[in-house]
Amino acid sequence: MNMIVAVDNNWAIGLRNQLLVRIPNDQKHFRMETTGKVVVLGRRTLETFPQGLPLKNRTNIILSTDHHYQVKDAIVVHSIPELLEELKKYNDDDVYIIGGESVYRQMLPYCSVAHVTKIDREYQADSYFPNLDKDAAWRVTAESDEQTYFDIPYVFMKYERI
Questions:
Q1: What are residue 32's phi and psi, to 5 degrees?
Q2: Which helix (DSSP H) or strand (DSSP E) does residue 12 occupy?
Q3: ∠ CA 62-50-28 to the nearest 5 degrees?
Q4: Was domain 2-161 assigned CATH 3.40.50.300?
Q5: What is the pTM of this model?
Q6: In whole numbers, what is the pLDDT of the chain averaged over residues?
Q7: Alpha-carbon span 42 to 123, nearest angstrom
Q8: β-pairing, 95-99 with 2-7?
Q9: Would you give the end-to-end CA distance of the chain in angstroms?
């Protein structure tokens, strides 16, 4: 399984249920990686999407502890064991965990690849991704050249579980 995330220098990912910054090339990268694939996300992350709707051209699986929660055009599961059972229907390489913080943390042990956009900034934040640079189980296997969006430098990195 894969994770895909954009982080700042402190591995922060969001503030008040919003991304820290929107970089068009990062959003394009996200679309290229996940289109036609399975995306796994929490309810609060879904609610940040336009009109709170699932992403088009993907199988959306929403993790919510609310057993009455339903979403048109998405699969809703209520626990990690239920999610893992649902994911058996799909090829591991086609599954992308896309947030938020609690879903990332709960699913990290099951993932072998993390696609990380590292943004060379420090933002005010209230949600974070686990720092893979400090986790001996992970190593960098690919890194793009530095890119810039206005004055914001960033790189695309691929981490793989050792």
A1: -60, -40
A2: strand 12-15
A3: 90
A4: no
A5: 0.97
A6: 97
A7: 22
A8: parallel
A9: 14
Structural domain spans, the chain: 2-161
Tokens of 9: 């220098």
Q: Tokens 């686990």 identify what position?
A: 130
Q: To the nearest 10°, the Cα dihedral for 131, 33, 41, 119?
A: 40
Token look-up 């890194």 returns: 143
DSSP summary character for residue 72:
T
Q: Are the beta carbons of 127 and 12 closer than 8 angstroms?
A: yes
Q: 14 preceded by cis ω (within 30°)?
A: no
Give pLDDT tens digits along the chain (162 positions).
999 999 999 999 999 999 999 999 999 999 999 999 999 999 999 999 989 999 999 999 999 999 999 999 999 999 999 999 999 999 999 999 999 999 999 999 999 999 999 999 999 999 999 999 999 999 999 999 999 999 999 999 999 999
Coil, strand or helix at 57: coil
Residue 144 per-residue DSSP state: P
pLDDT of the residue at 122: 98
Segments in 5-149 forming alpha helices (H): 24-34, 43-47, 80-87, 101-107
